[in-house]
Amino acid sequence: MPDQVPAVRLASITKRFPGVVANRDVDLTIERGEVHALCGENGAGKSTLMKILYGMQRPDEGTIEIDGETVSLRGPGDAIARGIGMVHQHFKLADNLTVLENVILGAEPKRFGRIDFAAARAKITEMSKTYGLRVDPDVLVEKLGVGERQRVEILKVLYRGARVLILDEPTAVLVPQEVDELFGNLRELRAEGLTVLFISHKLDEVLSVADTISVIRRGTTVATRLDPQEVTSRRLAELMVGSELPTPELRDSTATDRVQLDVGGLTVLTPEGRPLVDDVSLRIRRGEIVGLAGVEGNGQTELIEAIMGVRAADAGTIGHGDDDITHWPTRRRREAGIAYIPEDRHRHGLILEGTLWENRVLGHQTRPPNVKGPWIDRRGARRDTTRIVRDYDVRTPGIEVPAAALSGGNQQKLIVGREMSGEPRLLIAAHPTRGIDVGAQAAIWDHLRRARAAGLAVLLISADLEELIGMSDTLHVILRGRLVAEVDPRTVTPEELGSAMTGAGAPS
């Protein structure tokens, strides 16, 4: 261990909210000049702990030491004055201002009573060069991509003198190339003597960038200062969930002879007449999970939208049980028992500003327990939301909080609980475990398995090939809008499936 004073030491930190203990006796030591990763499930208490370190919240118990001195942080201003900066998961930039204006906002250098833009530009340019952040100080933020915006956020905290950077789930919104660039930036920061605290549940990323790793589970630290050279992603995952890492797998077939979804010759065209979905036919029986594998952009989204009635089919038929629903509106399809887990939970699955019970009603506002006669039944909706929170382990202080207050995994469990309610007969599950941690992932797999055993028909779309192989009774490959192969999930390998998805050849 280094003999120098740690950059940060948190000792016995406890933070309570009404109905929940977010952090309990957390201990964390971060040495100077290291990238320290803090891992944990969604909702494990990582973000609350970082808000405490950044002065946004005050602990109920415990102490914070910065550079060996015990401090009391009454707000982010105190943290910044102590050299602590935080880059939030959701950026806080003004689109109509330039990079320079965003960086200096609230910390403007003055000369003769006016903002000294020349000095600010020179400082930002020098910092950008030193840390490899590569941003143009004079470009409008609205013209920047996500990765560039994140570099601006990092520059903002560095400009204010931060020596310790807290990055909260920094890769959640980045594509792989941007993740690689970010990690390069973090290594540059470390080489210049800065300290980085990296919060994530993406274990492969943690192992590739961190010097040391700590794990938090259900609000308390269960492992500290692990060496990434001596720990595997599987072991980290087991520490996060507190048990052996689950795997996606089905047991004996539960499929019946009753066809629940019967798609025949379905075609969806662009306005110019190009096929997005090209003569697709598939059947799903009750008690069966049918997987659909394909590189994104090959017609999966349009196929789902046609089945849900969001997009009109140009040819073909869609059968649901004994009904031809080809021309039914979406609401009638939902009322007939089609449940839907959308691929983008924020855009299509939730109203983030709405409470949990209001989101329980969303898409189900014509059926009990959400309505009584022509009126919304608030009591019934609240009561059923409480059931969903209990049965699906949605970790929340209560059902009156906005959906935005939940972690990604808990948002997803709320959606799954809502869609599994009302005894659906068909579930369209688009990327049901995307962007969530291993614990929430395992819980959703369990719910799918139980629903399958009870007779639910499921169409599963996923970019996770292990999930598709493990959770499918039958597996189709879609390429350029056509079903090009049907493979046996019991024998196919991820490599063979990936090859079929790119058109390099179907498994034999």
TrEMBL record:
Domain ABC transporter, residue spans: 8-243, 261-505
Assigned keywords, A-Z: ATP-binding, Nucleotide-binding, Repeat, Sugar transport, Transport
Membrane-spanning ranges: none
Superkingdom to which the source organism belongs: Bacteria
Family annotation (Pfam families): ABC_tran
Keyword Transmembrane helix on entry: no
Molecular function GO labels: ATP binding
SMART domains the UniProt entry points to: AAA
Segment forming the signal sequence: none
Cited PANTHER family: CARBOHYDRATE TRANSPORT ATP-BINDING PROTEIN MG119-RELATED (PTHR43790), GALACTOFURANOSE TRANSPORTER ATP-BINDING PROTEIN YTFR (PTHR43790:SF9)
Protein name: Simple sugar transport system ATP-binding protein
Organism per entry: Actinomadura algeriensis
